[in-house]
Amino acid sequence: MEDYRIVADEISADVEAGRLRPGDRLPPQRRFARERGIANSTAARVYGELVRRGVVVGEVGRGTFVRAGRPPLETALAEPGGATVDLELNFAVLPEQSALVGKALEPLLREDVLTAALRPGSVSGSKQARDAVAGLLAKDGWTPEILFAGSGRQAIAAAIAAFVPMGERLAVEAITYPVVKALAGRLGVQLVPIETDDMGLIPEALEAASVRALYVQPTLHNPLGSTMDEARRVELAETVRRMDIPVIEDGIYTFLRPEVRPFAAYAPERTVFTDSMSKRLAPGLTTGFLAVPAEWRERLAASVRSGGWVAPRFAVEAATRWITGGTLETVERAKRLDAAERQRVTAARLAGFTLRADPRAYHCWWELPEHWRAETFVAAAARRGIAVTPAAAFAVVPGHAPNAIRLAVSSPPLETLGAALDVLAGLASGRPEDAGVD
Fold it and tell me: What is the pTM (predicted TM-score) of this model?
């Protein structure tokens, strides 16, 4: 038996014997490694094994906690294998889509076609691939030039690296995508939080900041769910022109609101639009796109290459076939219906609470009752086998997070989602001391 499994067995035994109780926090992995006299990599494998076994649950920005035992059957929350109900990660994979995706790949598996697809990729892709993605993204006269990255995250990283030197400042919404916080840290970039309202980022607040570039989510903002109206987009376009700064637009959820013009259509000469296949199709299909102004093409291509973020050629060829063959359109249409149904379930089960949600989104923002702190609520939910994300994970400034959580509603089966929301509603209606947490 490998060493990491022996250590995982010891921790599991401590939990079984009650020496570690539900809700107890395990040490950070580096400290755990020092205390046990094992390598950091081994400690990471131990924690991963404990998560796999369902002994502990990881909470974004907080740590690793001993989870409660398998939820009672009457809660209807136990998924196959007793896994946690995941309202933390937002990836929708519809039951019927695998057959569609697989069928579209059949021509790519012919020996001659596959041989070509297995050659090294390039940031430019083929003309057919560029045309396919440009056609997918084009809107009302905006037809961009396309570059490819390994994922949407890599596309964002490449754009940040291209425009914001180490030590310089990048404007973001005050509540923003956690991955951007991590990318900025790795790239040595300082994030500058910009105030928002119900329409999203406030242009006047941006203009008061001294920054090198702006990262923004104007459509179905994650986690707030807001979408800028046309007037706000026009105002923001005028602002960034006066400031003479580039804009990195995160368009990952735009497929759920296809009627909305991207911000890039309002300021095409200074906006890099990023997107990927991960939300449109599935998390394992992460080909990323950068829609770029012609004059910035080489600059951004060099950034993708230097970061090691070039998409594999096979992935680009697969994405091209899903787009041109109609598979992607079929899946997106089904996901729009699925998201709307999940929002209806969420609104019904959490009626009476303060929610911010677009009825077409796969996530919502829940402002908790005053008697609950977000971190305490997250821990209480985890003890009931439900993973949710506290606002602190999205806040740019530590200690300035709203008392809220994000619910990602795309992953569980609808019946499981409804049951989990019922549990959370009951939890929120009670008090922390009644839930067994302080």
Answer: 0.81
